[in-house]
Amino acid sequence: MSDKKKKKGEDAPADGPKAVSIAAHPRAKASIRRTRARVALATFVLVLYLSHRHGVGGQEAVVRALVGGLIGNLVGWACALAVWRAIVVQEVRTVAENRRARARARAEAAAADAR
């Protein structure tokens, strides 16, 4: 027996099914990053404006806005991730459905040719 530890990618077979990953999805990664940034910036500006409007001091308003921006970043990330999860699952279902339809059409064509 070997005492060597297996590396992370060595335990999965090379020919086996691939896992669907949001991180590997080309559009999802960029979209999630943009959403996080936009929500964080919007939350920062909103909290800063509301704090300043209600008479909070300058430094305290900025600290509140920073905390609000961080929370907005996390909330934006969670929402974008949930949306993209649903999109990726639907894309996988659509691809599988299209493959089944093509296979069914090929089988029907082969059956028609055999007659």
Task: Lay out the secondary structure.
Elements: H1 26-53, H2 58-114
Verbal overview:
There is one protein chain. The chain has 115 residues and is mainly alpha-helical. The protein has one domain (26-114). Helices cover 74% and strands 0% of the residues. The protein has two helices and no strands. The chain has helices at residues 26-53, 58-114. Helix 1 runs antiparallel to helix 2 (58-114).
Helical segment tally?
A: 2
Question: How many β-strand stretches?
Answer: 0
Shape: elongated
Structural class: mainly alpha
The residue fraction in helices comes out at over 70%
Order of helices and strands: HH
Largest sheet: none
Average pLDDT confidence is 85
Question: What is the distance, rounded to the nearest whole angstrom, between the alpha carbons of the first and last residues?
Answer: 58 Å
List the uncertain runs: none
Cα-atom Rg, whole angstroms?
25 Å
Strand content of the residues, in percent? Answer: under 5%
Q: Give the tally of structural domains.
A: 1
Produce a short descriptive summary.
With 115 residues, the protein is mainly α. The protein is built from two helices and no strands.
